[in-house]
Specification:
Blueprint lengths: L2 E3 L2 E4 L4 H11 L4 E5 L5 H6 L1 H18 L1 H4 L10 H24 L4 E5 L1 E6 L2 E6 L2 E6 L3 E3 L3 E3 L27 E5 L3 H13 L2 E5 L11 H13 L3 E3 L5 E6 L2 E6 L8 E3 L1 E4 L3 E3 L33 E3 L10 H16 L12 E4 L5 E5 L2 H7 L3 E7 L4 H6 L5 E7 L5 E7 L3 H14 L4 H4 L11 H6 L3 E2 L2
Parallel strand pairs: 1-7, 2-3, 2-8, 3-4, 8-18, 10-11, 10-16, 11-12
Antiparallel strand pairs: 5-6, 6-7, 9-17, 13-14, 14-15, 19-20, 20-23, 21-22, 21-24, 22-23
Helix pairs in contact: 1-8, 3-5, 3-6
């Protein structure tokens, strides 16, 4: 079999891969893009795009049910899951087709559909059916993505279960959805499915939801979910699954006094793992850690294999679409722009898309306290926001932690209406390294959610 030579090979057309291929194309590099499934990766196909489409449907239903608060009657609101799913599928399809068309339209670029596997350093064999090709390049970029973890729970193979992919293929609202895992994916599905009309129970082994967040943040999220009728059981260790007639039961083997919870469907949302198995990384000399993530340096280069980069979920340096995109920016900056950007330069930022959302940047209050550095803190409820009161969206709060000496922002949490948008003003100030007084003295537009931010920063007090 002849070996075909390229200047660059991109394996995986998720968030980082297509943009990287586009830059290679601009630089005149003969590039191969290899993808085994739908283009766009997790975000477009089974992550951000479909889930936020479902969140939008759930929010529309929730607002309609609240019609009496706003002076109108909408009648009985029922989820039509086939139509909800069709809307989601159409939006996903348009995004997927758009990414694929973009790749196929690039100059100097060949799109190859198939399964890639290393046979030697910087050499890949790609197979699709009976067709097999061997490719080599001095630059290989791995954008392999990740998938849901199947936890080793007793009985997990004896009952039907759902993951983040299959739960979005349901054509009926579950009568009672049991969710194992009280973190970001599990809580988003809990909220939207509850609004679609399902009974929902969340079972989390940790003493509280979102164990990496501050306690007041986790409690605030729990209050929002419980206010809409979601049952939350925390501290549920040694879980097991079993059949109980036509239903599924979740029990705690080590707590005999805790009766099992039964439901019609079970969603497992306990984490994700990288798609690094089965691609022959060992044959290419690519080192992985104990969890299967490719070990990279600050520029996303493999620490063990020359000419190999890993971007996105498979490198363990970020688990979000925006960090994958930033990985691509770091790689092209170092490779083509003589700009030594680094993974360590970025500020942690993410959101939990319940409604209202939680947005987080930088360090938590708990982390700042543990560091022992003098710091200031301020916290204000969303009830102080006129726009939130007018919209009937007063749940949650804003909180910031600031370095007492430099008065630079260390971290912030906004749980409340439009928090996922409002927090970017703080994020930008944090990235600029400016003291928070810049925002505290800035006039914000009224009536907006953002106008509480200057007031919040004017309330800073030393942390006790």
């Amino acid at each position: 079999m002849p070996t075909e030579s390229f200047d660059a090979i991109v394996v995986g057309a998720g968030q980082a891969g297509p943009a990287l291929a586009a830059r290679c194309s601009r630089e005149g590099l003969r590039t191969a893009v290899i993808e085994r499934g739908p283009f766009g990766g997790t975000c477009v196909n089974v992550g951000c795009v479909p889930t936020k489409t479902l969140v939008a449907s759930a929010r529309a239903m929730h607002l309609a049910r609240r019609g009496a608060e706003f002076g109108f009657a909408a009648g009985e609101i029922m989820a039509d899951m086939p139509r909800i799913k069709a809307r989601k599928d159409a939006i996903v399809r348009a995004s997927t087709e758009g990414v694929e068309a973009w790749m196929r339209g690039l100059k100097h670029t060949e799109v190859i559909v198939g399964e890639a596997r290393f046979t030697a350093p910087r050499t890949l064999r790609v197979g699709l059916g009976d067709q097999v090709r061997e490719l080599t390049a001095p630059r290989i970029f791995l954008n392999l993505g990740g998938r849901a973890v199947l936890p080793e729970l007793p009985g997990v193979h004896e009952v039907p279960t759902l993951d983040n992919r299959s739960v979005m293929e349901l054509t009926e609202v579950p009568e009672h959805l049991l969710i194992v895992g009280g973190s970001y994916i599990g809580l988003e599905f809990a909220h939207l499915m509850r609004r679609f009309g399902a009974r929902v129970t969340v079972v989390e082994k940790s003493p509280r939801l979102l164990p990496r967040e501050d306690e007041d943040v986790a409690d605030g999220v729990r209050a929002i979910l419980e206010a809409e009728g979601i049952r939350i059981d925390t501290g549920a260790e040694c879980l097991s699954l079993s059949r109980e007639g036509s239903r599924i039961a979740i029990g705690a083997e080590c707590a005999k006094d805790m009766p099992p919870v039964t439901g019609t469907h079970v969603l497992l949302a306990v984490g994700r793992r990288p798609n690094t198995d089965g691609i022959g990384l060992e044959l290419a000399g690519v080192k992985t850690d104990e969890r299967g993530f490719i070990v990279v340096d600050e520029q996303c280069r493999s620490v063990s294999a020359e000419g190999v980069w890993a971007l996105g979920d498979c490198n363990g340096r970020g688990a979000f679409t925006h960090t994958a995109w930033n990985d691509h920016e770091i790689v092209v900056a170092n490779m083509f722009d003589n700009d030594a950007r680094r993974i360590g330069d970025r500020i942690a930022c993410y959101a939990l898309f319940i409604d209202p959302p939680l947005a987080r940047i930088g360090a938590t209050e708990t982390e700042v306290r543990a560091g022992g550095k003098p710091a200031l803190r301020a916290k204000m409820p969303m009830q102080r926001v006129g726009r939130a009161r007018e919209a009937g969206e007063t749940q949650g709060f804003m909180k910031v932690v600031v370095d007492a000496q430099s008065r630079r922002l260390l971290g912030a949490a906004i749980l409340g209406m439009s928090g996922d948008e409002v927090i970017h003003g703080l994020l930008d100030m944090m990235a600029a390294g400016e003291p928070v007084d810049r925002i505290a003295r800035t006039v914000h537009i009224h009536p907006t959610v953002s106008e509480l931010v200057p007031t919040l920063l004017q309330q800073l007090k030393p942390m006790g």
